[in-house]
Amino acid sequence: MKNRIFIIIILSVFSLGLHAQTLEEIIDKHLKAHGDLAKWNTVKALALKGTFGSFSVEHPIYNIKTIDGDYYSDQHIGHHPVKIGFKDGKGWTIDPWHEFTYPRLVNKFEENIYHQLADYFTPFYKWEEKGYKLEYVGLKNEDGIECHVIKVERNGNQETWYLNAETYLEYKATGQWVDFGMPLDGEFYFDDFQEVDGLILPFFVERMFGQRDYVLMIESVQINPEYDEALFDMPQSDEMMVLNNMIGEWKVKVEMPGRGGNLRTIDQTKSKAKFARTNLIKLKTSYENYYVQPVTMDFSYHKGKGKYVLTTYTDFSSSMDLFEGVLDNGVIEFNEIITKGSDRTASFKCIVSDIKADGYVIEMQQSRDGENWMTAVKFTFSK
User: Fold this and answer.
1) Less Cβ crowding at N or C end of the chain, within 10 Å?
2) Taken in order 69, 74, 80, 85, is the CA torsion positive or negative?
3) DSSP label at 346?
4) What's the pLDDT band for 343 if we cut at 50, 70, 90?
């Protein structure tokens, strides 16, 4: 009888000890369970390799996450290759499941997911610096495991985390996930904790939401890897990469036909081209032909039409023209799109050629009959 009373007292004291812990004490034990905190404070980035399972198939996956909250993933969802980038709180993806083969910006629900993926392991590492809000709910038996339950608000979204009361490692979390750009409630499970150079990480992560079941099985973790910062930036489409050599500052020779029809140099000026948006190149040139002629050219690519698009804006006359063209043997011939009812007496086209790292040529041509063309102005760009 005395032994029973003694055991009950011990269990009661243990239970009171669990309940009496403060949120700060629980978080402190949780962080220590993940390894040496001093070691974590030296981690600038993690690179993870493993296998990602979805839609009943498995493929290799490669992730990078940084202390600044940047994230990159090269993976498959089902049989479709998917890339994800997240930097400075903004994300992009190339996701053929949405029938897009080119990069697109993600919506606010997807950004929330990328915020979660960018954290090293749980939201509790440096949670105060990141502005997260925590609330300790208490103890709860979850699937036969006694857990400390903590509500988390990060980036305006609500989550609930279950920390194993014995190991203080995360067992489960609930919160919002996303499917085809739409938010869904999800459950996330963590297991197979392994040590990597003094750090403890879950090598098994399962996420269930809606009818989906995604499983990440990590095979290796590299601490402070070398990587290209450009991975996090939204990439240009393959078509716009063809024009990538146009980017930069240039010397420009401007030529126009003289009285005999031969080209003559009318000005030597400078120009600058940059990606104004991910798939939009803006080229600004200003030259003199008696009067100052500032010209802005915007180059892009229309995926639906399979054509390059050019708009030219001449500040002197406040006129804008639209052209479409295709790439053929390194040359893009842009033909003018004439609006219905136009009173133009001449047609124009623009030819972009010799696009190389050290220069390129843009030639505007005009015709009054649509068959015989002559140079109106020619720009030769060089370093």
Assistant:
1) N
2) positive
3) S
4) low
